[in-house]
């Protein structure tokens, strides 16, 4: 098999959470371009994403869920299997952020973020890993970490805790499931131009200070994650396990 063939995802089915906009949409698009069919799990209808995926001649299967509520993941994975015939890839992209000084941060803002960003990531991965094991085919799990998996940040205590946790459980799951042919890795996006960072980009001084530190001199865009997500979802990454890939324009190198 040639190296380029190792990156092909034809015949694969990928679950991508939170793919109606932003980074999730970009990653779903990239996986479809590589040949995968997509099961999107979203709170709202992913009209634009569906149109893009189906425009490529790939299948897009639409599931709705509030991932902040527990007890849904087994049903979602079962439904994804029914729709797609099998499951080969999971991208745990859905996430939220709440901004407030740590001294005033509320328990609700803590729990809301931790439930979606960490608890659901673990239990969705667990349910998909069980499906991989039942299929006997192995599979790929890709979690979305953050620069705040490495750094403390300011005014985002639950987000920082959740993304630090994502890096940790990525390693844990990789350790336990590698023997089953399951690769668990993460992508840590740098400062990306998405809805989550709109407030930062609108703040002239914060925007300038962020750009000053990024060696690439620009905010990232969803397409910057296309290569990394296809690599981690494909046969090309079969010996990569438990690692978090920073896609940050050089932010961490400064």
* Sheet having the most strands: 7 strands, parallel
Overall pLDDT score:
97
Question: What's the β-strand tally?
Answer: 7
Global shape: globular
CATH topology: Rossmann fold
Taking strands numbered 1, 2, ... along the chain, how are they ordered across the largest sheet? 3-2-1-4-5-6-7
Q: Can you tell me the CATH class?
A: Alpha Beta
**What fraction of the residues are assigned to beta strands by DSSP?**
5-15%
CATH architecture: 3-Layer(aba) Sandwich
The helix/strand order is HEHEHEHEHEHEHHHE
Could you characterize what this model shows?
The protein is α/β, with parallel strands linked by helices and 254 residues long. The protein has one domain (3-247): NAD(P)-binding Rossmann-like Domain (Rossmann fold), CATH 3.40.50. It is 43% helix and 15% strand. The chain has helices at 3-6, 22-33, 47-55, 73-84, 107-135, 157-177, 198-202, 204-213, 226-233; strands spanning 13-17, 37-42, 60-64, 89-92, 139-144, 182-189, 244-247. A seven-stranded parallel beta sheet has the order 3-2-1-4-5-6-7, with helices on both faces. α6 links the parallel β5 and β6. The longest helix has 29 residues, at 107-135.
């Amino acid at each position: 098999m040639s190296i380029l063939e190792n990156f092909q995802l034809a015949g694969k089915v990928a679950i991508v959470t939170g793919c109606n906009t932003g980074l999730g949409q970009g990653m779903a698009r990239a996986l479809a371009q590589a040949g995968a069919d997509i099961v999107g799990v979203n709170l709202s209808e992913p009209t634009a994403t569906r149109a893009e995926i189906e425009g490529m001649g790939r299948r897009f299967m639409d599931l709705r869920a509030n991932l902040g509520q527990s007890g849904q993941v087994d049903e979602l994975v079962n439904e994804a299997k029914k729709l797609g015939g099998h499951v080969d890839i999971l991208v745990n992209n859905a996430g939220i952020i709440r901004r407030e000084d740590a001294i005033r941060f509320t328990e609700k803002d803590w729990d809301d973020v931790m439930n979606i960003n960490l608890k659901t990531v673990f239990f969705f991965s667990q349910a998909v890993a069980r499906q991989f094991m039942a299929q006997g085919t192995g599979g790929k799990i890709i979690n979305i970490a953050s620069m705040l998996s490495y750094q403390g940040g300011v005014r985002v205590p639950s987000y920082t805790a959740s993304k630090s946790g994502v890096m940790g459980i990525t390693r844990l799951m990789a350790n336990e499931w590698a023997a089953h042919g399951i690769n668990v890795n993460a992508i840590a996006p740098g400062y990306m131009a998405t809805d989550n960072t709109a407030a930062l980009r609108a703040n002239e001084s914060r925007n300038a200070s962020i750009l000053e530190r990024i060696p690439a001199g620009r905010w990232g865009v969803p397409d910057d994650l296309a290569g990394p997500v296809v690599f981690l979802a494909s046969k090309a990454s079969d010996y990569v396990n438990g690692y978090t890939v920073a896609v940050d324009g050089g932010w961490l190198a400064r």
